[in-house]
Amino acid sequence: MKIKCNFCGSMIEETVESCPHCGAPLSGANRTASEQPKTIDELKEWYVAHHLPPEEVTRFFIGKNITEPKAFGIYKNEVGDVVVYKNKSTGERAVRYQGADEAYGVNELYQRLKAEIADQKGNRPTHVQQPLVGNKVQVKKRKGCLIAILIFFAICILAAIFDKSSPNGYYNYQGTQYYHQGNSWYYYDKDADDWFVSSSMDKEITSDNANDYRYYDHSGKDFESSSWYDAGSNNDDSSWDNDSDWDSGSDSWDSGGTDWDSDW
After folding, report:
1. pLDDT tens digit string along 44-76?
2. Same domain membership, residue 6 and residue 94
3. Is residue 160 domain-resident?
4. Does 257 map to a domain?
């Protein structure tokens, strides 16, 4: 008996463990939702495990070099580099990352995919029951809820405006390699081949200029192997993974609402 692959939509035999067309595993072979993917194959598994619509609907192509407009993707090129890209509505390609660090590249697309899922869920229409005519108490309650929602969004907007923190990850500033984790900065000492706390980088690199100094080809001892590394600070995905399940079918996903004109 043939079944449809949840990732690429191809019809495949139900006895196989993975799709011969795209490599995605069947549901029985999926990873648990709490594990963050570190390879392209694991990201495919995560995609299937969260019941996301086919890639033609979400426009996220994992393991494929799609050249048509309006597409996010990750793949390995002919020399083995991992390439993370976004094709804009004009067809112009913005390369988010290209290099040998597969885990880093996968994380870039993984975070973008989760953000897109959140946006899609936020844009879904919801049914609002109309208040009964003459029921003043019910009308007041609805007005109170609306005011509370507006206040919440105003606080979120203000927090985003004044938040000057930089994304976690590697940076190169004036020839020195740094790593940002949570609210702390660390620098790499080549002679000691180790990482140490830096007390002033939060004044030099902020969210406004972070992309100017982020880099990917780190040399020397990985920060992740240092005593400073806190996996919880860099991976707060336990609740994210639960929220990333998609249970609304393909029809409710509208990739036309995605900002296709930005670089990412």
Report:
1. 989 988 889 999 999 999 999 999 999 999 999
2. yes
3. no
4. no
Q: CB within 8 A of 6, min separation 6: which ones?
A: 24, 27, 48, 51, 52, 54
Instruction: State the total domains in the chain.
Output: 2
Range of the domain at 103: 2-125
pTM of the model: 0.51
